[in-house]
Every structure is written in structure tokens, then in C-alpha cells.
Amino acid sequence: MGYMMDAPRSVGPMIKILRDMGQYRYDPADVFRDWIDYSVGCFLVHGDREMAERMLAKYKADYVQLGNLLRAWMEVMDKEIADDGRSWFDALGTVYEYLASSSKRQWLGQFFTPPDVCDLMTQINTDPAQPMRGKRINDPAVGSGRTLLSFNAYHPGNYVCGEDLDPICAKMTVLNMAMHGCQGQVCCQDSLRTDDWRFGYEVNPLHATGGPPIPHLLPITKEQSVAWQVMQSLVREAADRKAEPKVVVPPPIEVKPKVGQLSLF
């Protein structure tokens, strides 16, 4: 089979651009990673000029292909997502897995939960007939965001958060959540050590204030991270419990029964 001709048909338009760029000059895996950064910059409310200049210097005349790849992604999403209210599609994770299966790059080292399993997990843990709203939902090892996308498809109107130590995965989740209309946060950090912080984004924050339904992102600090705030609260509660004086419970008094006949005198 020809070069990159065995890709899933669902993401064919995206793979075609990566294939065209990879045939003569670039590694498709590197292009995909750069394109993830490019797309995050495009979704930022204030943009990312430094990133744009860096990509332009690297790709020169081929810089326009990054925009074409972004357009191809949006067209794939428009085709794959139905209007049934419970449809979602992870094109980014699908492309990532395809590149991982054909690349020796160490940073392409993850495969994600199959979509049907994600939907099954959502239905097992919640009642689709009784939608949840106003809750905080967290996935501490979010990957490309599939479990959160599934939950949001069944239960829109919640605040979804995800964390991952892999920066590419965190950024894919950011883009997936933004494109699917989720509201929440995504952080690149160690979920077991929340002070090991890399970066984070608020996803679609203006939707809550009546803003237009356009995907957008805002960078956040560690102190603005909901996951970090919750962890700090738990640490303080544990410290307070440890500092509380211990109540000393005296040992029970041993009562020895008298043995023998009773006497009235």
C-alpha cells in the first residue's frame, strides 16, 4: 500500500494534507504536533503571535498548509457529528493513533479508550434519562479527552476538567472540548503532584456570559486551576485533622464478679 494510504477514512482529508507535506520534506508526526500548537494559538482569544512567527519561519511557503489542515479538521467534524444531541467525534485522537502506529517517535506513545467504551462508561456511571447539570466532572488522565466528550454529549451544561502529563494530549483535549462546545479547564500537570504544573487553559469561558458560540480559549495560571484548588483544599483539611488534639479514651474498668451464695446477714 502507498505512503500513508491506509489511514481511517473518517480523517482522510486531514491525513491527505499530512501525507502531501510528508512526501517531500517534513515528518508528518512533527507537522501534526506543530499544527496542534498552531490550532491552540488560533483559538486563543488574544492569539499567539510568537507561535505564528515561529511556524512561519519553519514552514515558509508551506505555512498555509497549517490553515488548510485546520479547515480540513472542521470539515471532518461537521461531517462526523450528527444533530442527535449525543454525537461526538475525536478526529485528533484518531490521527494521533494512526501516526503512532506508523511512527517510531517516542512522544507518540499513547492509545486512547475506544469511543464505544467511553459511551458505555458514561451510561454505566450516569442515567442518560436524567441529565445532570451544574456539576464538576474531572478526568485526571484525560488523554485526548474522549471520556469528557462522551459525558458532555449525554449531559451538557456541566463544568468538565481534565489533566494530563503529556502536553500533546492536553492540547488535543483543549481543542476537542472547545470544538464540542464544552465549558471547563484542561491542565498539563501531574495529577498526583499538582504543583508539577506546565500550563492550562479555560475552555469557552465566554459562553457562560452570553458570548457567541465560537470556540475560544484563555490561558490560566496554576492558582486558577480548579484541580489545583481542590487538591490544596484537601491538603489543608488533612492538615487540620492531623492538628486536632486527640481525645484520650480511658481503658474500660475491669469488673470482677463475686462468686458464691448471697447472704442477708
TrEMBL record:
It holds the Pfam family N6_Mtase. One of its GO terms (molecular function) is endonuclease activity. Its EC number is 2.1.1.72. SUPFAM superfamilies: S-adenosyl-L-methionine-dependent methyltransferases. GO terms for biological process: DNA restriction-modification system; methylation. Belongs to the N(4)/N(6)-methyltransferase family. This is site-specific DNA-methyltransferase (adenine-specific). It comes from Persicitalea jodogahamensis.
